[in-house]
Inverse folding.
């Protein structure tokens, strides 16, 4: 049970660190900018994850 809570906590913290700034800034902007910021955040997170995997594998 504790492992599940820790896993959920790490997942939520990673999501906050990845998208927290975008969500905070986007609440003060227009809906179009909000969608754009979310898309940029998701793209940045995927790109960062891909870079980490490449570094880990050594390609």
């Amino acid at each position: 049970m504790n492992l599940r809570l820790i896993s959920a906590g790490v997942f939520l913290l990673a999501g906050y660190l990845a998208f927290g700034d975008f969500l905070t800034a986007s609440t003060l902007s227009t809906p179009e900018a909000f969608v754009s910021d979310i898309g940029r955040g998701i793209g940045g997170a995927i790109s960062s994850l891909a870079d980490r995997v490449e570094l880990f594998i050594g390609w």
Remarks:
- The longest helix spans residues 31-57.
- Residues 1-58 form one domain.
- The chain has a mean pLDDT of 78.
